[in-house]
Amino acid sequence: MPESSVRPGQLCCVTVSKWWYRAIIHRVVSDQEVEVFYPDYGNLEIVWKSCLRFLKWCYLKLPAQAIPCSLAWVKPVEETWSNEATLLFKKLCVSKLLVGIVDEYVSGILHLFLCDTSTEEDVYFHCVLRDRGCADVCGENIPSQGFKELNPSALYVQPSGKQENAELVETDLHLQQ
């Protein structure tokens, strides 16, 4: 990919261990590296610029597969989530099939309850976080302070209605040219 195209917001693909992934350049880290957002997985990663390629047109139109989500009815005990809460959440998620119960979809964020049903008794994440003193159950969905800054998909992934409108505008622009 030419250096002039290596800028935040540029759609591309990245090769990692012989596999290709759709990516969006999130920020330029150095002369050799960029941080990319993977819209189909929802994570950030620093990669070499030499691994970037332009994305084929047919893959540009596919919707992102990652959906911005937030655990329903909980908020951190302090202003932000503690390391203890984050580690506990990750431990609850690791290598398990989980049941997600949708509470609501507001402003492009899916708020859901997560439940581990693999044991005799169902384990609801919001209850575990509350019982361990890592969260307050609040009975409403309040995105964490800084959610958009910590979740780059909010910058690049639009809810479906806006996505369709963006495609229509893009099509109109191509027709005018």
TrEMBL record:
Family matches, as InterPro entries: SNase_OB-fold_sf, Tudor, Tudor_domain_containing
Record domain Tudor: where: 5-62
Domain of life: Eukaryota
Alphabetized Pfam families for the sequence: TUDOR
Cited PANTHER family: TUDOR DOMAIN CONTAINING PROTEIN, TUDOR DOMAIN-CONTAINING PROTEIN 5
The protein's name: Tudor domain-containing protein 5
Lineage start: Eukaryota, Metazoa, Chordata, Craniata, Vertebrata
